[in-house]
Task: structure prediction
Amino acid sequence: QVQLVESGGGLVQAGDSLRLSCAASRGAFSIYAVGWYRQAPGKHREMVATITNSGRTNYADFVKGRFTISRDNGKKMVYLQMNNLNSEDTAVYYCNAAGGNGYWGQGTQVTVSS
Result:
């Protein structure tokens, strides 16, 4: 069973950058696709970016060109580099492994002030 802990959230201004990190412990992390999801107040959780165990990435249209997902299997880490943030990026960001029925972290809050 994989345990995930996110970090790196915070309060920033529009146009700023943040880097989220997700540390995995236990389980065979490297075999899973992992991803970042987010949930804004009053909205459903949505996919932001995913990366397979071989490094293939997929991004939601609203973050293409601004966010980059990466992973380090040796360190059991997943990262989300977020550039040119705007107020619509305000949400709790969750790390996931093995898809919707898989493993979730507790989330980290990102707040972007305009």
Q: What stands out?
A: The chain has a mean pLDDT of 95. The CA atoms of residues 42 and 91 lie 10 Å apart. The first strand starts at residue 3 and ends at 7.
